[in-house]
## 1
Amino acid sequence: MISYILTYFIWFLVWILLTWPPTPKNLITGLVAAYLVSLFKMDIFRSPENKSRPGAEKNKGPASYIKKIPWFLYYVVVLLYECVKANIDVAFRVMHPDVPVRPGTVKVRTGLKSDAGLTFLANSVTLTSGAATVDVNREKGCLYVHLLYIKDGLDASAVNIPAINKFEKILENIFE
Amino acid sequence: MNNPLGSFFIVLGLILNFFGCIGLIRFPDVYTRLQSSAKCVMLGTCAILLGLFMFKGFTAAGIKALLCIVFIALTTPVSVHALAKGAFRSGVKPWDGSVADEYVKDIIKKR
């Protein structure tokens, strides 16, 4: 039920923002549209394990979502900082006369297991630190990452990148 | 042009997009080019939209610009990931100067 109400309000908020001057006509249409969408997608805030166990939703009250909000804001700040850093790095490589790249795909271990956590980790890796995720292997718990510059003597089958570890620690608190 | 902060963000976005396009030409292969377009073009477009929001304020156009920032930030990495994976699966060779090739070794060779 909590999941249903949360979905409803988020879609209603998106609708208000999309049709910004909130006149009565827009708001009434939004109430109906948000109801229809949340009928189809009411289980969006439940993890796959909880979908199979109907009682599991009870111990995940709204308090657990509120506790995650500061972590999420911290995640956005870190993502922006890393994104700007990666942009300066790419701009330097682009404008350098020799184009100093040593590209290649490497394997990065990860401890995250949930769908949402892995998705966010893969996406934030793509936006930062001269890396782009190519594929995810959930059984082995690793990401295949394409790096722009691989340093000499790096073991390609188990790479440690500080930016990725930082994201992993934050996302563990949000999604696991 | 009486909004200095908005103009600053739009110019910053144009510069970042410019770097992304130069990278598209100068980098050696598909995967490195994808990286330059993912990072620079994504942040550049977001900066341009933020500048637009500062010009327009909380009007219909300004709010839509903010929503577009969220949308672009969510979809750019997904499309880059899909393109890179598709290129690997259809057999596009990485550049000769590549150093490591874990993905080809682990996944492509075993199929």
## 2
Amino acid sequence: MHPQIEEIFDDAGSRYLKIEELRLVAQYASSVPDRLATYRSLRDCELDVMQWVADQLQAEMPQEPEATLERSITNALLMLRHCGLTMLLNQDSIVKERFLNWVQPTVEVYNTQAIDARLYQLLNQRLDEALGKQMILLSPILLMAQNALLPQKVESVNGVAIGW
Amino acid sequence: MISVADLLIDKQLPGNYFAVDTYVRGDLEMGLIENRQGDRLIALPETLIQAIYAGLEKETGQASRLVLFNCGRWWGKNFYARFREQLTDYYRLSPADMAMVEFLQALQQCWIAHGWGKIDLDHTHQQRGFLVVKICNSPFARLAPQNQQTSCHLEAGILSAFFSQLTGRDLHCLQTTCESMGADCNRFVLGLQKRLEPAEGMAAIADHDSIMQQLCQ
């Protein structure tokens, strides 16, 4: 759960929540059905989306060894799952501490930024088609993770302006 | 063609096993902390670490360094066994089969999760048979008596046993810089005991680079 909401509940036993605190809780609670629906959609389309991305990537980059592409795809799957959980629980620390801390050094060592940039472009494009309006909840987290991993910023989830 | 389904193991994808928020769990009612595998962890209060240093110094004098080093050896041996077990269970790979970068990532995250600071490896002198390990923000150095000697004998023992188990060679460990002496981090040199002997005791009078120069001559 979002740390700000957790903090609100720390004091909630000894007093009633203030209006602004209740507003924050209500805001999160009302978004839960959408978050759950988006999470389910993401889970259900993950394999199809990633398989399409993998096929495109392999066709566009036949010179890259399969193992290198597989590493980037595996990292992207991991990113998608962590972003999904972060979106569901509205807790940014999940993607930062569990995913970025883990994957960032390997991306730098294997120097896969060029592949990753194209992969994110394809991924965002396909996710946009598969999830439609549900991307509203997912895209800010996805962009945050992708920007942290690439030297040049990803500017749009629809994949128009990814620098690589 | 790449099959994405084949990249998953039982539909799962191993991530950061040692992420702090998932690795350390506590049961306040029982007064227990444990790791995600269910193994008990022990919390070392600062006062206890300081008392161990002071008590050993009083009881054994100069020998306290050797006592701490040997305790570290014992600890490191068990630590390696647990680390190996956790990696093998979770990633389905033994440390020996992991790519260096992934092994180092796991070790670094594991070190952080246990509150031992940030560990890094320096391979510059690997061709000459030495591995340099750097540890920053070590609680064992921070709480050690501040004097003109290196003080991370416990960690030196842990590293010696850990890397001996990993490489299958009996490696000794020598500390060359120490945060308790005002250094930016603690540096340890791992190598065969006989080859490290010329640098024994040099940390008090020479810097890390000079010691490495002496060792690599």
